[in-house]
Each structure stands twice: as structure tokens, then as C-alpha cells.
Design brief:
The complex is a heterodimer of chains A (215) and B (227). Chain A is of the alpha/beta class. Chain A is built from five helices and nine strands, in the order αββαββββββαβαα. The radius of gyration of chain A is 24 Å and the shape is flat. Chain B has 227 residues and is mostly helical. Helix content of chain B is 30%, strand content 7%. At the A-B interface, loops of A face loops of B.
Chain lengths: 215, 227
């Protein structure tokens, strides 16, 4: 199989309007992935499936990632030469930058016909609140249907053109998205026989008041 | 039936008060002579305890152990419970075998409501008792006893089939000790109480209500060692 960099080059030549980013993986497997833009994701997916050299006909796994807003502190060092002739001073300047949050979907693609894979593609939403729609790839790979429903349920990503976008694990009346980092779970810690760590902190809110305990 | 003349004076000699009924020792002695002395209550409990028909209903991995207990190797038929019924209308025993998710809980309670009296409930495994390893999860009920009355708790993850059989024997002992007249063992089962247990609704964040306060109240936490 071609390397992901080669696939990236071919895609960039075929879809000049699309924004494609190669996302490296610093972990030991070094399994890099390709970040697509949402506008061209469907065409690129069809291309990946139908291209005779790739024939990625099987989507084995779809998963979601929540990237909350993150404050990044960057330190820049500059050397200032003392005009009086003293030793040069190093000035550290810290700049704070707010990296916007987003929701991400990761697709793992394999080829049953040519027995190769995986090729990993990613899609990202604009933010975590109002721009949370992404194109569904269920029309391209049917196996995405339930997994995209699960991601809609647990992360709240809305997949356009999904044939049956309903919650999969939680009930329909449920409003939250439990796999998001900022999810607050229901407080039913009134009876914890052996609480510890953060469970202890939650259970303590239900402990009787000190005055009542003294009785 | 035969009765030797030597038997009756023996009973009178053993009982201190002449008007009190025969003791268990007397009955055993009489049975040795071929006389069955019993009461309606004992007969009813004997019949009920030896033919407990469970509901054919499994939720998670504990159900696999329940199935194993019903098959040839462990053979739950030795205790009269081999007739797993596919309908709650014909079942006596609800074995809550596995994790009760909040999405499944209303259906479990509805099944319990559909079972005719007298009915019994076994909470099998850590999840059915307390939520088990999923206790702090957002979608697992922290014990089915928050909504329906449980007669026997079987701890384990999952419990072995022998443990389920032991639980069934404990339930049979419990049934033999019940009264067919007088107050019900569980207040909600009494004739004046409504026969149906409230089914919680799906709320926006959790079940509403999160427990049946008539059945379950959180135990008072007293921790003298750790204030």
C-alpha cells in the first residue's frame, strides 16, 4: 500500500480546493492520520473507497474525540545586549494563547479486497457549541451507521445525511453528551460504603451536617 | 395410616402445655410412623418453595451463569426451578442477572409489575446489588433494590452457578418461613398497598425519580473513625 504521505499527495492533486493536513503521531506506533475538511470529506471518502490502488471498502471503526479549549503558554527567549558593556541578559517572554476547542471524528479504513490498511482519516467540527455538524460517511461505508449514532449520542456531533440519526445508548429524552470532558454526571452518591478520591468528595456533600452528627 | 398406642402418650409427655400444638420433633416422630401432620400454611409454603418458576430473563454476563445453572452440569431442576418461563404472567421468580442500566430499569420494573403474586426477586451479582464496577457510571442503576423489593442478594462478579443454587435454597428457606395470613413480609406487598411499583420516567439527565423512597432510603452514614 502507498504510504499516507503518498495518499496525501495524490489527494492534494485530485482535490486542489480541499484542505488536507497530515497529523503525525508521536507515539511508538507512529500511525499518522489525515485531517480532512468537512466540505470535501464525502468526495474524498468516495475516492478512497473507489480508487483502484486503495479500494478502502471497509470502515472498521469510527470514534470521537473531544478537544476542550486549552490555554497554551509559549515561552520565547530573547538575548538583550547590555549597551553599557555588561553581560547579555536573557529575557523570557511568556505569551498565552487560547487554542479553540473542537470535536473530532476518527475513521479507520481497511481494504478487504486488497488486504491492506488501516488508513486513518479525521474530521473536525468548527467548535464545541454551535458548529457541530459534520457530513455523515454512512452513505459511503454502511458500517458507520451505528457508530455515528453512538458519537451523536455521546459527543453530540450532528451528522448530516445520516439515514437514522437517533441516540443509540441513552434514551431519547436525555439531553447531555456524557463523553464530553465537561459533562457533569447526575449526583446520586448518597450511599457510598467505601468512597475514595473524587467519589469521596461527591459523597461528602450528602453526609449529615456536623450538628446532626453530634446527637 | 397406622398409629400405635405408644405414640400419643409420647407426644403428651414432650409438650409442656397440653393445649399447644405439636413440635417439629413430634411431627418427625409421627412421620416415622407414617402419619403426616401438617397445616395449610406449611403445605402451601412447601408447594411454593419447591416449584419456583423463574422468569427467562438475562441482562449481562450473570445470565450466562444462570443459564449454566439451569443446564445439566449444575441442574437447577434438583430444586424444582427448571421451568424458565418466557412470560412474566407465568413466573414466580425474577432473577435480576446482570447490570441494570438506567435505560433498562423501567422495563425491569414493568416486568416485575406484570408478575402475579406470590413473587420473589433475586438480585444476582454485584451490578444488580449496587451497580458493581459500573457504580460511578452515568448510565447504571446503583442497585435494583432502589425500585423493587429484593429477597435474596447473591454477591459475586459473576456469582458461580453454585452460588445461584445457594441463593435459591436461601429463598426456599425464606418462603417456608412466610405466613399465608397476616402482614405481608414487604409493606408494598400488603393487600392495602397498590400492587404496582411506580415505574420511573426518563428524565433529561437521570431517571425521575431516582429511587422509590418507600422501598429504599440511603443508610445513615456513621463514620466515627473518619469524620
Amino acid at each position: 500500500m502507498e504510504t499516507l504521505a503518498q495518499i496525501h499527495e495524490r489527494l492534494a492533486a485530485r482535490f486542489p480546493a480541499a484542505t488536507l493536513t497530515l497529523v503525525p503521531n508521536p507515539a511508538p506506533p507512529a500511525q499518522a492520520s489525515l485531517l480532512l475538511d468537512a466540505a470535501h470529506a464525502r468526495e474524498i471518502a468516495v475516492f478512497l473507497r473507489d480508487d483502484p490502488a486503495l479500494r478502502l471498502d471497509y470502515c472498521s471503526n469510527v470514534t470521537g474525540v473531544d478537544w476542550p479549549e486549552k490555554e497554551i503558554v509559549e515561552t520565547t527567549r530573547s538575548v538583550q545586549i547590555d549597551p553599557a558593556g555588561g553581560p547579555p541578559r536573557t529575557i523570557e517572554q511568556k505569551t498565552k494563547r487560547l487554542q479553540p476547542g473542537c470535536l473530532e471524528v476518527v475513521y479507520h479504513l481497511y481494504s478487504m479486497a486488497l488486504k491492506h490498511g488501516p488508513v486513518i482519516i479525521r474530521l473536525r467540527t468548527g467548535n464545541r457549541s454551535d458548529q457541530i455538524t459534520l457530513p455523515s460517511l454512512t452513505p459511503v461505508w454502511r458500517s458507520c451507521e451505528f457508530q455515528e449514532r453512538e458519537i451523536f449520542d455521546l459527543f453530540g456531533i450532528v451528522f448530516t445525511d445520516h439515514p437514522d440519526l437517533r441516540r443509540l445508548l441513552m434514551w431519547d429524552e436525555f439531553t447531555a453528551h456524557p463523553m464530553r470532558k465537561d459533562y457533569v454526571e447526575p449526583d446520586d452518591y448518597e450511599w457510598e460504603p467505601t468512597p475514595h478520591d473524587d467519589v469521596l468528595a461527591k459523597a461528602k456533600a450528602h453526609y449529615p451536617a456536623p450538628a446532626a452528627k453530634a446527637e | 395410616m397406622t398409629m400405635s398406642d405408644a405414640t400419643r402418650p409420647a407426644i403428651n409427655a414432650q409438650t409442656s402445655a397440653p393445649l399447644s400444638g405439636p413440635t417439629d420433633a413430634d411431627r418427625d416422630e409421627l412421620r416415622r410412623h407414617g402419619i403426616l401432620l401438617t397445616s395449610i400454611q406449611e403445605l402451601a409454603n412447601w408447594g411454593r418453595s419447591n416449584s419456583v418458576w423463574p422468569l427467562q430473563f438475562g441482562l449481562a454476563c450473570c445470565a450466562i451463569e444462570m443459564i449454566a445453572a439451569s443446564m445439566a452440569r449444575f441442574d437447577i431442576a434438583r430444586f424444582g426451578s427448571e421451568v424458565f418461563r418466557p412470560s412474566p404472567r407465568q413466573a414466580d421468580l425474577l432473577i435480576v442477572s446482570g447490570t441494570v442500566t438506567k435505560k433498562m430499569a423501567p422495563q425491569v420494573i414493568r416486568l416485575w409489575n406484570q408478575m402475579p403474586e406470590p413473587k420473589y426477586c433475586i438480585a444476582m451479582g454485584a451490578c444488580a446489588i449496587s451497580g458493581g464496577p459500573f457504580k460511578q457510571g452515568y448510565n447504571v442503576l446503583k442497585g435494583i433494590d432502589r425500585f423493587i423489593p429484593v429477597d435474596v442478594y447473591i454477591p459475586g462478579c459473576p456469582p458461580r452457578p453454585e452460588a445461584l443454587l445457594n441463593g435459591l435454597i436461601e429463598l426456599q428457606k425464606n418462603i417456608r418461613g412466610r405466613h399465608i395470613a397476616g402482614p405481608a413480609p414487604v409493606e408494598a406487598d400488603s393487600p392495602t398497598a397498590p400492587g404496582e411499583y411506580p415505574v420511573p420516567a426518563f428524565g433529561e439527565r437521570d431517571l425521575e425519580p431516582t429511587s422509590n423512597p418507600k422501598l429504599w432510603q440511603p443508610p445513615v452514614i456513621v463514620r466515627p473513625d473518619k469524620p
